[in-house]
Amino acid sequence: MLEILVAQITPVKACVCLVGIFFLAGLLRRLQVSRENSRLGERAPRIRFQLPYAIDHIYQYVVANHNCQDLVFWQSSILNAQGASSIDHPQTAELDAGISNRTIVTTDPQNIRALLTGQFADFGKGEEFHRDWKEFLGDSIFVTDGELWSRSRQLIRPMFTRDRIVDTELFEKHIQHLIPLLAGTPDSKAVDVVPLFLRYTLDAATDYLLGEGTNSLQNPATTFAEAFKYVQHRQGEIFRYVPFNFLLSRTKFRQNLKIMNDFIQPYIDRVLSLPPSDLTQDPSKPSTFLHALAHFTRDPQILRDQLTAILLAGRDTTATTLSFCLYELSRNPSVVQSLRAEISTRLGLGPSSKTPTYTDLKEMKYLAAILNETTRLYPVVPFNLRYALSPTTLPTGGGPTGSSPIGIRPHTRIIYSTMLMQRDPAYYPPPEESKAYYYDPGKWIPERWMRGWVPAPWRFVPFNGGPRICPGQQFALVEMGYTLVRILQVYGCLRAGRGDGRGDGVGEGVEGDLRMRFEITLNPGSELNCVFERDDGGGYDGGQGGGGDVKKERSA
Ligand code: HEM
């Protein structure tokens, strides 16, 4: 019987059979997976798509990302998902595009809390993420889970003790190079603050990590900075275009990675050539992050991976937040006035002013309100990702009313957006309840923090929460606070700049809405031009230490 069948089969028939078997197997597997999901919990509203593997949805996302429309895209994907119309306040949806690439998108604080703390062990970066990022970040803190992650966390902890972050001297050195550049050029007063802050934070971060800054403020064309920028950009694409990222070429990516590694390697060689006795933790000896790391491990690969991870974490995050903050300040003169009043009372303005200490920065309430408001409206990790590590659930968003737990199989991707959550009007007092003051949640208004508004738990998490909370939070707040104070001690007036090189560059500001580009982190999608004008009562004295003594505080 079998012999007769084999004898009669033609190549065409064989192909048709194989295709049939392939589809049948796929269908059966899909049914099995769907049953497993239903056994674990409910399904969330389904994001709509027409083509196999949701190719049309992925394509639309690529276009939206290119046009800086990520927020609108994900918000409307959730609101227009099949089944969302019967839910009061849809915050979660799923994209079930095949057998193994189900993605849940959520902005619900209950789910975010579960991911980051309550069900921390069930969700992590996952193997897929680790594999996609390994060339860039190796086995460092950002890309690992479990034991590997925990060891990294312990390794870097000593660098973020209070003892170290109170030392603001490091920033002063670089701010002295930044401040004159903010004045613009003879051709245009308007300066795009984004590249300047990127150079400033790169110099400060390399100084902190390696003991020697890249000095990119003095010499903008540093090869390392260019290579780092390209690698981040490409890694962002590799991250976003899962599961089709294997189509992206890695050649230029690897060439630039090599430039980065070649830059870092001599520092590692130098520190490894020191005898262990020279790597003491004696605080009286100026020790860099690299020295501290080498105290615990002499493995050059681990040193390279952790350094790169901290550089990534510490550079764009603060540069971007400062850029958005300056953009908003230049459009809100009354906020500049109030902040300068606070600075004036505490530290003074102009050439005879004092530089802020850690305690000054911590006690300046209006400064804190400005930084809170900036990280509320522009959290630098607007969309974050976790993979399910075991069969589990998310607490809410499933079923017809959207209030049941969602069943989650291992390897399911969860995208959570703190940015959409932090801008959601449902979490703010509505205009009718706000009496004299109504602060639109979509707008940058630091006053909301001064008038008794306190976000409910897990509704303001720009630095994440739970065991993976950002260890650099205090360092970042000190760096950003210090930088703002020092700039406003020198420049009394900030204005929106046109920045097209015409005339003095002062204009009505960037036309249209602010564009936000999502790469690995949030970035401005266009120039953020500001005009800085010196304080009438005296201004920058040419970098001769016009801000008084550099103060350093150490904890008792
Ligand atoms: C405005 C400034 C910053 C913001 C808003 C911010 C935010 C965040 C967020 C949301 C995460 C969680 C990422 C995830 O779980 O996937 C994170 C992680 C991290 N951040 Fe920051 N960050 C900032 C600055 C810094 C700085 C200056 C440093 C170091 C110098 C730093 C070091 C880290 C590290 C090492 C992690 C990984 C923690 C872990 O996975 O356990 N961050 N940050």
From TrEMBL:
Pfam families associated with the record = p450 (PF00067)
Which residues does UniProt assign to the signal peptide? Answer: none
Residue positions annotated to bind heme are 470
Residues that span the membrane, as ranges? 6-28
Gene3D superfamilies in alphabetical order:
Cytochrome P450 (1.10.630.10)
Q: Which UniProt keywords apply?
A: Heme, Iron, Membrane, Metal-binding, Monooxygenase, Oxidoreductase, Transmembrane, Transmembrane helix
Q: Which GO terms describe its molecular function?
A: heme binding; iron ion binding; oxidoreductase activity, acting on paired donors, with incorporation or reduction of molecular oxygen, reduced flavin or flavoprotein as one donor, and incorporation of one atom of oxygen
Which cofactors, if any, are listed as required? heme
Q: Which family does it belong to?
A: Belongs to the cytochrome P450 family.
| Protein name per Swiss-Prot or TrEMBL | Cytochrome P450 alkane hydroxylase
Give the species this sequence originates from.
Aspergillus sclerotiicarbonarius (strain CBS 121057 / IBT 28362)
User: Lineage from the top down?
Assistant: Eukaryota, Fungi, Dikarya, Ascomycota, Pezizomycotina
